[in-house]
Every structure is written in C-alpha cells, then in structure tokens.
Amino acid sequence: MQQLTVARSASTAAIPPELIKEIQSAQRRAEAKAAEASTKTSSQTLEGLKARLQLPESQGGISRSERKIGSHVFRVFTMRQLRDWLSSSGEADPWVVAIKLLTANTVTPATLDRAEAEHIAAALVDTGAAARHHTTGESKETLLLTLATETPRPPAGEALNTQFWWQGPARPANEVANDLRQLILELYDKHLSPDGRSVSYGAIRSDPRFNAFVAATAELQKVDLSHLSREELMSFAINLYNALIIHALVALNLTRMSSAQRASFFSRIAKYNVGGLDYSADDLENGVLRDNRAGASNLFNLLGIHRFAGGHWTSADPRLAKVVRPVDPRIHFALVCGAKSCPPIKLYTPSNLEEGLAAAAEAFCAGEVLVDRARREVRLSKIFKWYAIDFGADKYGRLSCLAAFLSEPAKTDLLEMVRQAKSGGGSIRVEYKEYDWSLNGED
C-alpha cells in the first residue's frame, strides 16, 4: 500500500493526524475488499470449470479414457490433456489454472496409493512453477489424473473417504462439516421420506450429488477436531455418523444384514478417515459421543453389569483426545443406524443442537415408551437397555431420566411410580420391545 505523505510548507496547512488515519483506514478497507472480490471471482471461475470438466466430452467436458491401475479402473486424462482443455476453454495461463484445480482437489492423481498420490501432486505443482520458465518436463505432462467425483471405491477394509487422497490442508472442521451437511441435505430432500424414516438407497446411488458428497468427504482426512467446542463436536459427530451409515449402505449395495454382518459393518466397514485417524460408526458413537464407553454388544452390557464393561478404546488411543464430555443420552434419539426401529434422520448444528435433541427425544419417546400406571409397567425400546448406563446409575435413576423426555400425562405417571417404588410402594416392571433391524429403505 502506497504510504500517504503530507508536504508541509508555509503556504499549505498540515492535514490533521486524525484525518490521515481515517484516509489510510479507508485505503486498507478498499484493498481488502478488492482482494476478497478477486478471491471470490477466482473461486467462482474454478467452480464453473469444475462443472464443465465433469460433463461428457460431447457436451464440452474433458475427454476421459478407462485405464486399469492395480485392481481398479479409473477414468483418466493426462496433465497435457487438462492443459489443452483449459487453453481451448479460453484460460490465458492453463498451467496455473490446472495446478489450482489440483490443489482444490477437483482433479486428483489416478491412484489409490497415498505416497504415490502425494508424489505425483508434488511433481505437478513443481511442473506448474517450471512452466513459467518453459522448463516443463515431458514425462510430467503424461502423468495420469482423474476427476475427484469419478474415483473408484477404496479397497475393502479401507475408510470410505479414501477414494482419493486430499492434497493440501483442510479448512476448519466446522466449514467442512457445514458443506457436508448441505450436500447430504440436498440428498435427504430428494430421497428421504417426509417423516425421515425411509431412504431410497438406489435413487441416492444414481444421483450425481452423491458422487459430489463422496468426493467432499475426502477433506475429512485433514481436518483438525481439537478446536471444536462440545456443541460443535456433538453436532459434527452426529451428522457424520448418520451420513456415514447412508454412505456405506449406498456404496456397498447392502439391502439386508445378518447379526454377524451388522457387527462387522459398524465396527470395521462403515468408517471414515478423520484427521488422519480411522473412525468407524462404533468409534463415533461409543468413543466420541459416549465419552469412550463400551458398546451395546459388550458382554457385560448384555448381562446388565455395566460397571465392568470398560471403555471402547484403550487408554493409549490418540482419539481419546477429543470426546464429548459429559455424555448427553439424547444422542441415542439422533443417531440413525439404518434400521427401521431407529429414529428419523435430522440434521444438527451447534446453534440448534439443544432444541433439536429435545425435539428428537420427545418424538422418539412418544412412539417408543409406554407407561401403564395401573399395572405399574413400562415398555421401552431396547435402546434403553443397551445403553442403560447413559441414562442413569440404577433402574429408578434411569426411569426418572426418561420421564424428562415424556409428555403429560405419561411424565407425571412415571415420576409418581418411581416415587412410590422408592418408598416401598411396589416395584416397576420394565419390558423391552423387539428391535426391527431390517433396513429403513429400499434399493
């Protein structure tokens, strides 16, 4: 910024210091606004190029050919093809724009090997710098690339968001979460039933927006969760869990699961790489959201001896550095495991988390809790059995906790039943409904 100077002479009055500061401040604001506008224009240009790249060649998209690399088939093009396509699209400096598309993760090296992907990306970035001095290496121009939205599914057992390796740093976790939330919301609006309980998995699979969502999940590889508040972490983990389940069911073409398959699905198959660490659905639920508590399938939890169940992770696990504490039992009314007995799917933000969880608890309990004061009986979803420790230390503590989620007259009836039971007026019989594990959608 050119500095404002003031000439002083006998015939010229000095500009007041306050006015100088005001003028300089206005100059800085104007420069900042111009820089912001330039960045916005550049971003809009990249978004436009991204949309056109993905079109079929007959409609102006880049030409792609199928190439088997390892055990996977990629739709590839070379760096030279990308440069030529950008040049024909009117870009004055195609190499610079090509590198921007690479660093924006619109295009990515055609490989599932992380080290190779990073090596190729680094080589191409160096090539882009060299191109300005006309020293581009011929071999680098023939390196194979693919569109991030067209990468094949990662190998079995790998995190579902490692279909390509994210190049460069990630944005703040909340920004990434907001974009993923918007993408999944578009899919929900199109393919989720009005009551949120049924999903058309086949329709999602054929929707181009699902490919965009899958590509966007790759940024999770580099996010930093350490700066998230409790509310931010809760909404992030709940939304991510629900999106992960749908992602896994759609990508793996699952229409039904046996008990053994369910255990493997939640603990090993449905998982994302988040900040360089793998998080399965079980990890998000029992590790992050339940403050490292053993899951429902733990033997001691099945026997009802919850105090001996231990933790989900070992004490040395690095993922323990960021968990939700204290536990809010209402998460169980927000997590959707893909079964028909699960709650409906909703989206949560840090600002609407309290209101959203309260509404989810009331809605779930209205349909899954039956209080019969005359018979001194309570019928509950098995969620309250599997995760009993989250609702209280003992039977009556849990029932009192549950009462807070009920509407009248069930709320008053249950609290009175608990009061009488504690005073020796007769115990309360608790029964659990059968849980319907069939999937909450169709292919």
Question: How is this fold's topology laid out?
Answer:
Blueprint: H1 17-53, E1 65-69, E2 72-78, H2 79-88, H3 94-103, E3 107-109, H4 114-131, H5 138-141, E4 144-147, H6 173-191, E5 199-200, H7 201-205, H8 208-217, H9 230-251, H10 259-269, E6 271-274, E7 277-280, H11 281-289, H12 299-303, H13 353-368, E8 370-372, E9 377-380, H14 383-386, H15 388-391, H16 395-403, H17 410-422, E10 429-432, E11 441-442
Parallel strand pairs: 5-11, 9-10
Antiparallel strand pairs: 1-2, 2-4, 3-4, 6-7, 8-9
Helix pairs in contact: 2-3, 3-4, 6-8, 6-9, 9-11, 16-17
Summarize the model shown.
The protein is an alpha+beta fold and 443 residues long. It has helices at residues 17-53, 79-88, 94-103, 114-131, 138-141, 173-191, 201-205, 208-217, 230-251, 259-269, 281-289, 299-303, 353-368, 383-386, 388-391, 395-403, 410-422, and strands at residues 65-69, 72-78, 107-109, 144-147, 199-200, 271-274, 277-280, 370-372, 377-380, 429-432, 441-442. A hairpin with a 2-residue loop joins strand 6 and strand 7.
Query: Structural class of the secondary elements?
Result: alpha+beta
- Uncertain stretches of 5 or more adjacent residues: 1-12, 36-41, 131-136
Give the distance, in angstroms, between the N- and C-terminal Cα atoms: 60 Å
Oligomer: single chain
What does the radius of gyration come to? 28 Å
Strands of the biggest beta sheet: in what spatial order?
Answer: 1-2-4-3
Number of helices: 17
Largest sheet: 4 strands, antiparallel
Strand content: 5-15%
Instruction: Let me know the number of strands.
Output: 11
Protein name: DUF547 domain-containing protein
InterPro entries: DUF547 (IPR006869)
Pfam families: DUF547
